[in-house]
Amino acid sequence: MVEILVAVGMLAGLTLVSMNLAKQATSTQKKLETDIEADFITREITGILSDPLKCTPLLAGFNAASTAAGAILNINGKYAASLTTGYGASQLKVDSYLISNSGFSEITDTNTETSLVINFTMPKIISTTVPTMRARRIKLIITKSGANILTCKSAWVNSLDYWSKSGNNLFYSAGKIGIGISTPTEILEVGGNFAATTGKFNNDSGVTFVNISQHYVEANSGGVLAFNAERAAWHPTLNDSLGIISFQNGVNWNRAALIEAFAAENFDAVASGSYVTISTSPLGANIPSEVIRFTENAKVGIGTTTPSEKLHIVGNLRVQGSTDCTLGNGAGGTNCTSDIRLKKNIQEIKDSLEKILSLRGIEFEWNEKSQSPNKHAIGVIAQEVEKVFPTAVIEDLQSGYKKVDYAVLVAPLIQAFKKLYNEITTIKNENSKNEEIIAGFKDKIKKIELKNASLEERLLRMEKLINKHE
Predict the structure, then answer these.
(1) pTM of the full predicted structure?
(2) CB atoms within 10 A of CB 158
(3) Which residues share a beta bridge with 87?
(4) Under a CB-based contact definition with an 8 Å cutoff, are residues 353 and 367 in contact?
(5) Do 415 and 421 form a contact (C-beta atoms < 8 A)?
(6) How far apart are alpha carbons 161 and 166 in whole angstroms?
(7) DSSP 3-state assignment of 311?
(8) What's the CA gap between 229 and 60, in Å, rounded?
(9) Is-contact 276 259, C-beta < 8 A?
(10) How many Å apart are CA 343 and CA 336, to the nearest integer?
(11) What gap in Å lies between CA 403 and CA 417, rounded to an integer?
(12) Across-strand partners of 153?
């Protein structure tokens, strides 16, 4: 019997212990649930207050140092301080709100920061006889009017990223943002590739800086890098700048070179004529000046801002191919490399006169296959030239049409002229000799004529004497 009583006593003791452990476990679970619920609500309220348009109307006018704010939050009917409404599975209640800038290590500047204290009432736990209070803090970034809050937005504690929300927009105003880089030096710095499928860089102030260091801008599948100068309040007029691509000096950010577009007329819904300039800085200077202009009528000017031809150059033009020529230099306007030190196997052109004589100088009109249909011109036939001077004819690899390098014909013309000159000189020399011979004959004839005159005179005298004697 004693043993039975002892066993019953031990069983009762174990039952009490089990019941106490169960109560403690349930209490711990309830506390954990309410703590999680309090954290969840605090984060949700923080998210709501991150929008200044929602935070400011609720808290503006309250003393930033210490204010019993009361039932201040009522977003869509939620989170008003009330002991009758519970939230979540634990039915956690918001008891009261308090604005305070003291006792919170996250506040470092009371002129721009304060906190919103949320006092929660936790449901009565099994191990207690009264509801339990819990408090949570939300850091606020504020501006003040005197001692009172003027504007506000919430900030996540233990973080330097003071993000704010306005409607569907998320913004940041506390510093620089780095993506893929921990030490950004610009407002936004991306340490890697940046892709924008339908986006744009937009700055209504007229100046947009995109700093790309040791990388490049890539537009795949017909992508566009666009500078939109058309604004509702501003329509470009003649010579207004439409946008600049600027290459900067990283030491002092002076512009080293520019690509800039301008309005060539007053813009409207259908008119958007434009021209583009390229400017560079000379050595030792940091002020770019225009060097090339692409006009609205498809003309290019180098050294001039008013090109009159498709390519208008003020200065010399150097062209290097099989030879090296400078156009616009020298009295004749063009000179090409012809130094004997660059040549070998030198021979004079043979039969140059006969070859030149085999060519025809013709007048003609270009046909419909040409670039100037019906235009009247003069020239030679490439196929005829190729037969006697093959190096003066080049065949276009794309079209197959033959082209004549007219300048090359100068050399055989020189040789032909020399041969013709020599022949003319020979004829002149022969004519001179013939003239000397003829002159000699003339002298002899003159002498003979004189002798004949003398003989005739003597015959006349003799005839007269004979006539007298008869």
Answers:
(1) 0.48
(2) 7
(3) 92
(4) no
(5) no
(6) 16
(7) strand
(8) 40
(9) yes
(10) 14
(11) 24
(12) 141
